[in-house]
């Protein structure tokens, strides 16, 4: 009898232990997958991009609050915070880390984890920046979307030269902290030599440096300002547009946000499509696909957006041919 009671007690204890273990595992397991969203800016500045990401995520079958949770980290324009914010999201054990908004975000995410699935969105060349091994076979734990908008900076120079054909000097504004700064400048200098125009390069990596750039363009008699592709510039389009009109300087940037805010013109990739596709990739990874099996997608569409009212105020009206070649004309 004693032996039977001992056996029964052992079985009961074992059953209790299994029940406790099962309860504990259910308590620890999240009710839905979690996306970690690493953003270089503030929610206000990133609203349109985030909307496009949600659209793509929905196309992949995921809706925030219904069957996926998103945890955000916002750098608020302080890009030096990105590595720590990326590490924090990795520590929260998110299922996939999304790194949109440029090369600095992608590089911070990649440095934070060699195993956590990562989806980036950028305008630079992810192979040249050593983010992936190749576009078709990214390898490792990271893939994403690129508009390759840094490659069209010389075309912005050409558009400015077409608008101001008598200009002998144009100014280029570059963010010296950008990982793509030097490659863009090399291409711009080559384009300037072909166009027969002299370039003066000005650096700006902080918002309080913007005004001195426009003031210099006015005082030095530059025909116009050409901004390199850089997320820090793109997300401050309203400020740049206001300064361009204040100093009456023709300027071109990479994003349509600039002419929409009252600036002259923009030429660059379609950011709505690149962020939407990042959302689709995040959803596909949550559904079980591996980043290494998903080739880097290229958003090849680039768009020229012009603002006729700004051109009139600046005294540089667009020719009929220029207007005909624009993808969008703002009245």
UniProtKB/TrEMBL annotation:
InterPro entries linked to this entry: ABC_transpt-TYRBP-like, Peripla_BP_I
Entry-linked Gene3D superfamilies: 3.40.50.2300
Species the sequence originates in: Bradyrhizobium daqingense
Pfam families recorded: ABC_sub_bind
Protein name, as recorded: Putative ABC transport system substrate-binding protein
Keyword entries, A-Z: Signal
N-terminal signal peptide: 1-27
């Amino acid at each position: 009898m004693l032996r039977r009671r001992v056996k029964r007690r052992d079985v009961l204890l074992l059953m209790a232990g299994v029940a406790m273990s099962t309860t504990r595992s259910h308590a620890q397991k999240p009710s839905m997958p979690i996306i970690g969203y690493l953003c270089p800016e503030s929610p206000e500045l990133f609203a349109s991009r985030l909307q496009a990401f949600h659209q793509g995520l929905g196309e992949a079958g995921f809706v925030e609050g219904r069957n996926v949770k998103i945890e955000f980290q916002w750098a608020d324009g302080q890009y030096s915070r990105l590595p720590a914010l990326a590490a924090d999201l990795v520590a929260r054990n998110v299922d996939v880390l999304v790194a949109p908004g440029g090369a600095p975000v992608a590089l911070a995410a990649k440095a934070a984890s060699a195993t956590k699935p990562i989806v980036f969105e950028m305008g630079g060349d992810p192979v040249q920046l050593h983010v992936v091994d190749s576009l078709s076979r990214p390898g490792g734990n990271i893939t994403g979307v690129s508009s390759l908008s840094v490659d069209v900076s010389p075309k912005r120079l050409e558009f400015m030269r077409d608008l101001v054909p008598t200009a002998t000097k144009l100014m280029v504004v570059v963010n010296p902290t950008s990982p793509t700064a030097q490659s863009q400048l090399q291409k711009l200098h080559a384009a300037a030599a072909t166009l027969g125009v002299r370039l003066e390069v000005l650096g700006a990596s902080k918002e309080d440096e913007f005004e001195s750039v426009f003031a210099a363009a006015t005082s030095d008699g530059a025909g116009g300002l050409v901004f390199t592709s850089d997320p820090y510039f793109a997300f401050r389009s309203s400020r740049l547009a206001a300064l361009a009109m204040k100093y009456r300087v023709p300027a071109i940037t990479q994003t349509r946000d600039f002419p929409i805010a009252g600036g002259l013109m923009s030429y660059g990739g379609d950011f709505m499509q690149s962020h939407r596709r990042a959302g689709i990739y995040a959803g596909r990874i949550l559904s079980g696909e591996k980043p290494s099996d998903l080739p880097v997608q290229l958003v090849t569409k680039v768009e020229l957006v012009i603002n006729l009212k700004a051109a009139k105020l600046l005294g540089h009206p667009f020719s009929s041919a220029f207007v005909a070649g624009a993808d969008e004309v703002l009245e």
